[in-house]
Design brief:
Helices cover 37% and strands 22% of the residues. The chain is an alpha/beta fold. Among the domains are: 70 residues, Ubiquitin-like (UB roll); 142 residues, Cell division protein FtsQ/DivIB (Rossmann fold, 3-Layer(aba) Sandwich), CATH 3.40.50. A hairpin with a 2-residue loop joins strand 8 and strand 9. Helix 8 runs parallel beside helix 9. It comes from Ruegeria conchae. It is a single-pass type II membrane protein.
């Protein structure tokens, strides 16, 4: 061991006497520790250095602390590590196939028990707004085996299937209280008959197909149209027929010519050839002349209104022969 040594506290010598507050401070009695020499024991340390360590952090510790104060690192430690831990635990649990199957079966059993509760069961289907034949068609295209859970019903798919039927204009499908599948139908109403090479069809006001019929006499009260592409211009045909209402039962129907214009067919094989643009307006001009001069009561075969500035009248064969005979007789007499 090192020998013990006595050290004294350094003494401050002043050249001038103290004055003022310093004199009072200097006149204070000295403590015993200042009067006597201090004896400090200095021994050798067996562990560690003899000097006291520096309290300042090391460079590595300082950098680590600064790194931990970064917002991203703090969020990663507070949120990311717990999430990773949970994901790891869950992944380890479901790594075994037996556990996955057991959990899946448990979930399915709970789901089934909830879906098959009596308040979720549908027992029958009610159809309103449809005729007997249409109701049978709906039940045929939507084959449902009642009772079944409302969770197993795809209402949107059922509605799309029903609206795909030609006689159905719109449909609403919903589940009523009491376990009833309610289907509300708005049927298409036939307003015109369309004669084609494939048969006779019923069309609604938009030209949509409603049904096929066997004979024209089945719907003799409806107006008749014919020609290729006539179904695409049903609103215009209805407007022309409304204008020709004053002709009464003389109207036989409308014929679509060249998929671009209409011919109004009357009895006595008369025909009014309408233009492509504004055919109802051209028909009104013909009807105005007919009211004044009885044009359609004469031996006229066709009234050509395709050229609005130059209407043309074509007489029938008998009237043409009589006219030519009259002209020849007049010429011979001269």
């Amino acid at each position: 061991m090192r020998p013990l040594t006595a050290t004294r506290t350094p003494v401050i010598h002043r050249t001038k006497p103290l004055a003022g507050p310093d004199a009072d401070f200097g006149a204070a009695p000295k403590s015993e520790s200042e009067a006597e020499p201090k004896l400090r024991l200095r021994g050798t340390r067996f562990f560690g250095r003899g000097r006291l360590s520096d309290p300042a952090p090391s460079r590595l510790s300082y950098r680590f602390q600064r790194w931990m104060l970064t917002p991203g690192i703090r969020r990663g430690v507070k949120i990311g590590l717990p999430v990773l831990a949970v994901v790891g635990l869950v992944g380890g649990f479901f790594a075994a196939e037996e556990r996955r199957e057991a959990v899946s079966a448990y979930v399915i059993s709970i789901k089934t028990s909830i879906q098959e509760r009596p308040e979720f069961m549908v027992n029958l289907m009610a159809i309103d707004g449809a005729g007997t034949a249409l109701s049978e068609d709906i039940r045929e295209v939507v084959p449902l085996d009642f009772p079944l859970s409302s969770w197993d019903l795809d209402v949107e798919m059922i509605r799309d299937t029903i609206t795909g039927l030609d006689p159905v204009k719109s449909a609403t499908v919903r589940i009523r209280p009491g376990g009833i599948l309610q289907v509300d139908i708005v049927e298409r109403q036939p307003v015109i008959v369309w004669r084609t090479r494939d048969g006779i069809e019923l069309l609604d006001e938009t030209g949509a197909h409603v049904d096929m019929i066997a004979a024209r006499a089945d719907h003799a009260n409806l107006p008749l149209i014919a020609g290729k592409g006539a179904d695409k211009h049903v609103p215009e045909a209805l407007q022309i027929l409304t204008t020709a209402r004053s002709l009464g039962e003389r109207v036989r129907g409308l014929v679509r010519v060249g998929e671009r214009r209409w011919d109004l067919v009357l009895d006595r094989n008369q025909r009014i050839m309408l233009p492509t643009e504004r055919p109802a307006r051209a028909l009104e001009r013909v009807l105005a002349v007919n009211e004044v001069q009885d044009l359609l009561e004469r031996d006229v075969a066709a009234v050509d209104m395709r050229l609005g500035q130059r209407p043309t009248i074509r007489m029938n064969k008998t009237a043409s022969e009589d006219w030519w005979n009259t002209k020849v007789d007049v010429s011979s007499g001269q």
